[in-house]
Amino acid sequence: MPTVLDRWFIEAILVHEEALLRYLQRSWPHRDEVHDLRQEVYARVYEAAGKALPQQPKAFLFASARHLMADRARRARVVSIEPMGDFEPSHVLVDDVSPERWCGGRQALKRLADAFDRLPDRCRDVVWLRRVEELSQKDVALRLGISEKTVEKHIAKGMRLLAGHLFGGEGMSRHAASTALEEGDEQQHAD
């Protein structure tokens, strides 16, 4: 047996069903959700009318529909933040530096220092200023009183000799060093 509220709902609200559907179809971008929206509007209106009957049922119905769409649009823009849980402590530095790696690094550094010491004096100065102190080519040239072109040549020679020592083996590095000494002497005479 229908109650007073049910009769009111049928007579005051359901009579506007077609208008409500057209309004929802015009206003809501997702057509597949229109029927769900209609049902939710009806549920809201029925629940509110259970507390107090609206004075203007049609206006109340469309205002409820408008508020429902605003709520859904607002919820769609909210980015959910979900807890990710605790990460395991990262021991990247501790795990990466094994005794073998540490020892290998020290040996590579010693080889580089040896190769650097074998460079001709002027070439070593240029490589140091340019690569370690990171001076510009122009500043290196000004500081050492040589041309920028000479700085370029020293850098190229220094890199070639260092690579030969580090990657070319001991025999090659000795040959490269003796060649470098000869070239360095020639270059110093040219400067």
Quick structural overview:
Helices cover 76% and strands 0% of the residues. The protein has ten helices and no strands.
Q: How large is the count of helical segments?
A: 10
Q: Which spans have pLDDT < 50 for at least 5 consecutive residues? A: 183-191
Tell me the helix content: over 70%
The helix-and-strand class reads mainly alpha
**Computed CA radius of gyration, to the nearest angstrom:** 41 Å
pLDDT averaged residue by residue: 82
What is the rounded distance between the termini? 113 Å
Give the amount of beta strand, in percent: under 5%
Overall strand count: 0
- What's the main sheet like? none
Task: Based on Cα principal axes, name the global outline.
Answer: rod-shaped
What series of H and E elements makes up the topology?
HHHHHHHHHH
Describe the structure.
There is one protein chain. It is built from 10 helices and no strands. Helix content is 76%, strand content 0%. The N and C termini lie far apart (113 Å). The model is unreliable at 183-191 (pLDDT under 50).
Record the SSE blueprint:
Elements: H1 4-13, H2 17-27, H3 34-51, H4 57-77, H5 92-96, H6 99-117, H7 121-132, H8 137-144, H9 148-167, H10 169-190
Helix pairs in contact: 1-3, 2-3, 2-4, 3-4, 6-9, 7-9, 8-9, 9-10
Characteristic key phrases:
191 residues; mainly alpha; 76% helix; disordered C terminus
